[in-house]
Amino acid sequence: MNFDDDETKQRAAITLADDLSPLSVEELAKRIELLHQEISRVETEIVNKKSTKSAAEGVFKI
Fold first, then answer.
1. Which end of the chain is less crowded, N or C, counting CB atoms within 10 A of the terminal residue's CB?
2. In degrees, to the nearest 5, what angle opens at C-alpha 31 toward C-alphas 25 and 32?
3. Domain range enclosing 33
4. Is residue 16 one of the residues assigned to a domain?
5. Between residues 27 and 62, which one has the greater pLDDT?
6. Dihedral of the CA atoms 14, 16, 31, 8 (nearest 10)?
7. What is the pTM of this model?
């Protein structure tokens, strides 16, 4: 198993409202890092969808 597989499993395991009390400071910091990466990924997708929507509206506008 490589590092990327490990991170993917860890990222998939993060859910909102998890009990954070058993996590160490390092685990909490990693969780924050992964959440920031996910926020960035979602923001990029929003930009892409808005761009696609604008292009479609331009094509179908009379």
1. C
2. 90
3. 24-62
4. no
5. 27
6. 20
7. 0.64
- Classified as helix, coil or strand, 61 is coil
Q: Is residue 12 part of a domain?
A: no
pLDDT over 70 (residue 30): yes
Q: Which of 29, 22, 30, 32 is nearest to 3 (CA)?
A: 30
Helix axis angle, 3-13 to 25-60, nearest 10°: 80
Residue 59 and residue 41: Cα distance in Å, rounded?
A: 27
Q: What is the full DSSP assignment across 4-42?
A: HHHHHHHHHH--TT---TTS-HHHHHHHHHHHHHHHHHH
Q: Are 3 and 30 in contact (CB under 8 A)?
A: no
**CA angle, corner 50, sides to 52 and 45, nearest 5?**
95
